[in-house]
Amino acid sequence: MTRQESAPIALPRPFVKWVGGKSRVVPTLLRTAPRRFGRYHEPFVGGGAFFWALHNQDRLHQGATLTDVNLRLVRTWRAVQGPVDRLIDRLAQLSAAHDKEHYYEVRSWDVDAFEDDVDVAAWFIYLNKTGFNGLYRVNSKNGFNVPMGRYSNPRVCDPVTLRACHDALQGVELRHGGFDDVAEQAERGDLVYFDPPYVPLTKTASFTAYSKGGFGPDQQERLAVVAQKLKDRGVHVILSNHDTPVVRGLYSPRGFKRRTIQVSRPVSAAAGKRGKVNEVVFWSPRKR
Ligand SMILES: C[S@@+](CC[C@H](N)C(=O)[O-])C[C@H]1O[C@@H](n2cnc3c(N)ncnc32)[C@H](O)[C@@H]1O
Fold it and tell me: CB within 8 A of 271, min separation 6: which ones?
């Protein structure tokens, strides 16, 4: 094959935008990960930024299990792992029809009634790429309610990236479930990365006031207990969150090491308002 004929090569990377996506923290996570580990587990996978980074450094030698509580998201990952060419065709159709009316029509589809993961994935990726800021937000009936974003020409279908992700996902286990499952699955020497919904930063959002999003103080505490159990069992654990006194109080007394990272990102609901916030990475110390 001549140079001109050769297919474009792309490294796999997140195929959905995900709020809290870890792209800026990934270099620290890569430095923090042990040189060698067993299976990789990521229970809050979202867009999977750290998973792709580890894959692209060829550090996943014993396989990976990726889990999320959002079934629509997990079915989207499964469609990318499975019939990706059908997904690409479907996304191309949705992309060609994109306008305001089409966005709101697609948004109203009863996605959970779809039997085919490809239909769920096309719905998910189309709305993710054309909706406001790539947000995923649902009402009390699990209806997706994000308004259309203001993009002149959103890239809905990226076949090269989707095929690269498809290849990389062969043999990877994709699970729908809560983070506690990992406590039973991870074995000594494995690596677990926890990237939970973050503890809020603002002073007005108190520790007890953020359970609305489904991940409140009780779950943060339960997660810390699970993380400690895994660490004590000889599993390598890495965890990220906002750097707040509450978060330090959960992990420092449990014997995790800590590094703070300043990142620039949206800090208010007002579109485009960015600022510096501190994120923190905790990891289990290596046993000598
Ligand atoms: C901060 S995001 C993860 C971002 C991800 N690391 C990335 O790079 O895109 C948190 C994720 O946790 C999921 N989640 C929320 N509660 C959960 C739970 N109890 N168990 C497992 N996943 C959960 C959400 O659906 C979301 O995908």
Answer: 132, 133
Which ligand 1 atom lies nearest to the CA of residue 47?
Answer: 9
107 lines ligand 1 (CB under 6 A): no
Q: Residue 259 pLDDT > 90, yes or no?
A: yes
In this structure, are 229 and 260 located in the same domain? yes
pTM exceeds 0.85, yes or no: yes
* Angle ∠(143,132,130) on CA atoms, nearest 5: 90
Does residue 20 have its Cβ closer than 6 Å to ligand 1?
Answer: yes
Domains identified in the chain, total number = 2
- How far is CA 19 from its chain centroid? 8
- Tens-place pLDDT, residues 196-233: 999 988 755 544 443 345 789 999 999 999 999 999 99
Shared domain check, 260 and 125: no
By alpha-carbon position, which residue is closest to atom 7 of ligand 1?
21
Query: Can you tell me whether residue 237 is helix, strand or coil?
Result: strand
- Tell me how far the alpha carbon of residue 4 lies from the centroid of ligand 1, in angstroms: 41
Q: Which domain holds residue 116?
A: 78-156
Same domain? For 203 and 268 the reply is yes
Q: Is residue 188 part of a domain?
A: yes
Specify the residue with its C-alpha closest to ligand 1, atom 20.
178
pLDDT, tens only, 6-54: 566 789 999 999 876 677 799 999 999 999 999 999 999 999 999 999 9
